[in-house]
Amino acid sequence: MNRLLLIIAGIGITVLIFSCSNKKAGNDATPAEQTELPPSLQSADKAVFLVRLSEKEQNELHVETLEVSSNFIDYSVTAPGVVFYAPEHSSIISTPINGQISKILKQEGSRVRKGEELYRVQSLEFGNLVSEYLQAFAEEQFQTNRLTRIKQLVEETISSRSELERATAEYQRAVASLRATYSKLKAVGVSDQEIKSFTGSEQIDPVLKIYAPIDGVIERSFVELGQSVNALENLSRVLDTRVVLVRGYLAPDDARLIVSGDSVTISKRENNEAVAKAVVTSINPGLDEDSRSVITNIILPTINGWPKPGENVRLEIITSSQKEVIAIPVEAITYDGNQAVVFVKKQNGIFEKRKIEVAEIRDEFVFVNSGLASGEEIAKTKVFSLKALSRFDIIAEE
To answer: Which of 6, 96, 170, 190 has the least C-beta neighbours within 10 A?
Structure first.
């Protein structure tokens, strides 16, 4: 009896061990079976999603396609602008010496030409400059004649070589002094003709004449007749409004696309009427501290007095891509989450849903960095219908 009980207990233990072993093996096999996912969910980044249209769907959708190509693309950038005085076409008139305004020949609003007399400044300082020049001129004439005489005496062996050397040195000092006084007169704006006239005049007139440095209009006067002025004090401002500087304020992302020489259309801000055409002259390398924009500079001849300094204008800059890119219409692209996708035609009724990398979106076009190649054909209509069908195919596959 005891032997029978031992046999039954041994059989029970063996069955229990065998049962646990089979259960463990069954549990280990379960994960392997769960990894067998539908093809559409395996390696999603590398998977090719095809949308197959039935003959009925092809007839109902009438999907239009477009062959893509890589080209240099022209597009426009719009920006606000402000008109300023053009460099070398505006000038501040100032007095180079201390004195008193003895005559004002042109008033505000008067048109002047380059070299035309504007002011006369009576100045003791100017009189001293003229006096120094005349003394240096007389000394140079004396030393020139003396050197000539001594050279003749040396040739006749009447004078020694040392006297000739001394006369030559004094002549050179006189020439240097004359040049120095001449430079001082030129520095205060005296012309060569006036300097020449000083030597033929019996009296010194201590009046400095101030001339217009450019053609233009007296925009503003800062002094009155009889007013005492100090050296470098402003007298007036002359503007030549036939040429102006237009500064355009670009967003940093737009500025990187613009280069010098790009064409610009400038229009009135209130009605957007195109008025003038020009080219980009230069682009500032950094951000403007006040506007936080990149400034582009445009030198522009005015048309019938427009635009005027201080006026706000609108700019449209036409530029092109720096390298060949693929551009597709905006309506040809859709998004799967945050991922841009297009539908590439493989054959009649079959489209591949493909991910692309977008460089930027401009106006009506999308510039593609990667994901498409020249010569491929993409759907440009019924894109949302194709997207819906692609999701239906994935669900059905699962």
So the answer is: 6
